[in-house]
Every structure is written in structure tokens, then in C-alpha cells.
Amino acid sequence: MTFNDTVMKMKIDHEVVWKECLQIIKKNVPFLTFNTWFLPIKPVELVSTTLKIQVPNNFFVEWIEEHYNTLIHNTINQVLGPEGKLAYIIVEEKEEVFEPEPAIIAKPVPVKVENVPENIFPPKPEIKQQIQEDFENYLNSKYRFENFIKGENNQLARAAAVAISENPGATSFNPLFIYGGVGLGKTHLMQAIGNKILDNHPEKRIIYLSSDIFTVEFVEAIQNNTVNEFSNFYKSMDVLIIDDIQFLIGKEKTQDLFFHIFNALHQSGKQIILSSDKPPKELAGLKERLVSRFQWGLTTDIQPPDFETRVAILKNKSESYGINLSRDILEFIAHNITSNIRELEGCLIKLLANASLSSQEISLEMAKKTVKEISTSREVNISIDYITKNVCEFYGVEENKVREKNRKKEVVLARQMAMYLSKKLTKSSLKTIGLHFGGRDHSTVIHAYNSIEKLINTDESVKDAVKS
Residue 300 region, left (φ>0) first, then alpha (ψ -120 to 50), else beta? Predict the structure, then answer.
């Protein structure tokens, strides 16, 4: 008798069915993928041959269907038979779960600290305020999800951040490790998590700091013989947010202490959020046991923003200053400042300052002058968007066409040429280039590059186009 026959003859628990599915899925996906995307799913109900499962948000559904639709379909068919179906239930609201209040532990200072009883009744509301006042959390209130511009460059990191802010410590994104270059929004996103958690749970103990500040405080604790108090303070956190974790490299004693703090928090179900300029495995000089733990949860990067995201960032920022800039000015700045968000905002602030000092209206000419002033290189900045714009003009193709699933010959040629030149003339990764062209993967970029290379040797028109 097949498993499907059993399902049809008796009511089988939905958890048994989903457990069977997980056993199959686990054999076909990487360990990290399984823990991140499938383990958090909860079976809800089995109705005939339709299994209903609960997922945290819409992003989960979209990501799973895009990347593992075939695996899911085959698994359900194998477990429930040809008539088997899967239905998603997206969590809209979460019930508030009572947790005992933590003991009040003051931040260590070089003075005697009073002992606080560990086993206490849940404090009255006024005590919750005291918990936040007994130490500085260093969160900047301006960093919110509301003013964090979502784009393809940060989609996964933002989705994970939102999920964590709704249920800290209870998702598979623990720790959340965000990496990327300078000025791409890592700090904004990390602090947005902390601010959102405090909005929903003001009693939570949350702290944000950089790893170099952590190291300085540790050295002071050694000098003042207060290492135990220092360690206990950080172990008392509900959410620990550490920026620039790469600065722990070469500091062995600090790494050892952080290792024990990390273990204590993780085993207690507390949320840990880290950032770095590189993924954990590339942090040479960091102890292997730390690198291993940093990869327990979700590791995700933030890429430089694409053209549309840069325009949105500039528009949002200028409006926050009470200024409405024309589309031409926004697009000019976005076309020429491509490296990071910090430089974009710096250009905008300088533009506003120039306008204020000269008592003139902001114009495109003023924007061009400002961009030239802040340029870090005398050479023209060549971006993927700049290349795409010029290639599409050369071939007479609309820019949006090369980002769509359009198989017309002239569109395909323009798309492949733009990808080819982007790889040749920029330092962008294959993944980043693919994202600029409708979210295509790196293999598509490689194919485009090889195709143009062949055409250069066989087609004079393509050869001349590349030279021009």
C-alpha cells in the first residue's frame, strides 16, 4: 500500500506528511538553504490531498516558487500522489507570547555594581521603561524601514530583516549576517531592525555597536577587573547588533570572549545581527569556530543600488529636506554617482549647500558642477546603467526591453552587448550585472559575453559597434 493509499483511507496528521516532505527536500538542497527556507515552514492542515502550510510572508512564497518549484511539486506528488497539492497560508498577525522579564543588569562601569536577583516576577509597566534607561542602546531613531529604499540589490537582506523584527530570535535567520561594501545601507538596515523591535516590544534589551567599540570596552573591563560584569551585560541582551565584525580580526582575546557571548545568546534563543565587508568564510584571521557560528543562520549581501533604486533614494532624501528636484537632475546624479548610497547622499547635500550659498535655484548645470566637484576620479564614471543607456540608443531599442523576457533579435543583441561591455568596462560582479538586466543569473551574463566574443570575430558590424 502506498503512502497515498493510506492518506485516502485514514486521516493522517499534517505534521507527519510535512515531516515526510522535509526528509525528501533535505536530501536535495544545501544545509543552509534547508534551514533558512524550509525549516521555518509549519504544517497547518491536511484536507484530502491538499497540505496547507504556514509561511512567514509573501517573500517566502515567491522565493521558494521561483527557486524550488519543481522540487516542491515532485515532493508533494511523491508523498501525496498525483493529486497532491500544496496551499500556502501567509502569517498576517502573530499572537503575543509571554516571556518572563530578564533581570535588570546595568552596563558595566568601573564602579561597584549592585547584585540584582535573577528570579523576579514580571515587572510592572514602569519597570519596563527602567530597563531601557539603565544603558544606552546606541540606536539612531532615524534609521527605519520606512525610509530604507527597497531594491533588487537589497531584497533578501531587507525581507530577512523585516521577518526578524516581527519575531526576534524565533526565525532561522539567527544570526543574520549582512555583508557588502561601504555605504550600501548595512547600518541602516541593522538599526531599523532594532528600532522596529523596540516599537513592538519596549521591554526588550537591545544594543547596537561596532566591534571596535566592543574591543575598547573589553580592554577597559580588563583594566578595571570587571570582565565578568562586561560579559554578563552582553549576555543579558535580547538583541545584540554588532557592526563591522571584521575588526575583531587579530584580536584573539576579544574573539574568545565574543565566542562565549555568542553561544550564550544563541542557546537562549536571543537574536544576533552582524555585519561585515566580506562574507564569513573570507574573513581571514578570524577563528574558525567563530566563522562557523556566523554561518549558522542567514548570510546575505547588499549590492550597490541599481539606477532605479538610486533615483528613488535621491527623491526620497531630497523630499525629506523639503526639496522637489526635477527628474533630469535626479537621473543625472544617479547616472554619475554609482558606487554607494553614502556618496549619493553626500552629492545631494553638497548640491543643496551650493544652491543655498549662491542663493540660486537648483538647476541641471548646478548638478553637473556639483557632481564634477565631488568626483573621486578625473575619469568619467562608467556604470552599467550608463552602458545600457548608450547601447540601447545605438541599437534603437527601449531600455526596459532589455530587462524584460524579450527574445526579439535586436533586443537580444542589445542586451548581450550591454552585458559584454558591463563585464569589460566595470568592476561589477556577474551577479550584479545580471540583476541590472531583469534579475538574470550569472550564467546568462557569461553566455552573453561569450556570444559577443564570437560575433566580434565573425561579424564586422558587431566588431565596429564594440569599438564605437
Answer: beta
**Sign for the pseudo-dihedral over CA of 26, 31, 36, 42:** positive
CA atoms within 13 A on the CB side of 427: 6
Whole-number pLDDT of residue 152: 81
Closest to 339 measured CA to CA, from 188, 157, 153, 178: 153
Q: pLDDT band for 466, please (50, 70, 90 cuts).
A: confident
**Closest-CA residue to 192 (of 158, 235, 153):** 158
CB atoms within 10 A of CB 358: 10
| Residue predicted with more confidence, 116 or 338 | 338
C-alpha cell at 282: 573570507
Residues with Cβ within 8 Å of 17's Cβ and at least 6 positions away in sequence, in order, are 7, 43, 46, 51, 79, 80
Q: Are 79 and 45 in contact (CB under 8 A)?
A: no
Q: Whole-prediction pTM value?
A: 0.52
Instruction: For residue range 29-46, list pLDDT tens digits in order.
Output: 876 577 667 887 888 888
Mean predicted confidence (pLDDT) in 158-184 = 89
The pLDDT tens digits of the residues spanning 73-98 come to: 889 888 888 888 888 887 643 333 33
- Is the sign of the CA dihedral 327, 332, 333, 338 positive or negative? positive
Minimal CA–CA distance to 316: which of 158, 162, 150?
Answer: 150
- Of 40-54, 182-196, 198-212, the range with the lowest mean pLDDT is 40-54
Q: Are 445 and 430 in contact (CB under 8 A)?
A: yes
First to last CA, the chain: 69
d(CA 112, CA 132): 20
Whether residue 198 contacts residue 206, with contact meaning beta carbons closer than 8 Å, is answered with: yes
Q: Tell whether the model's pLDDT for residue 119 goes beyond 50.
A: no
How far apart, in Å, are the Cα atoms of 270 and each of 1, 169, 170, 175, 395? 45, 5, 8, 9, 55
Answer whether 195's CB lies under 8 Å from 144's CB: yes
Residue in 187, 301, 303, 298 with CA at minimum distance from that of residue 241 = 187
Can you tell me which residue has the cell 538610486? 310
Q: Is the peptide bond before 110 cis (omega within 30 degrees of 0)?
A: no
Nearest to 237 by CA among 131, 339, 381, 116: 131
Q: What is the DSSP letter of 371?
A: H
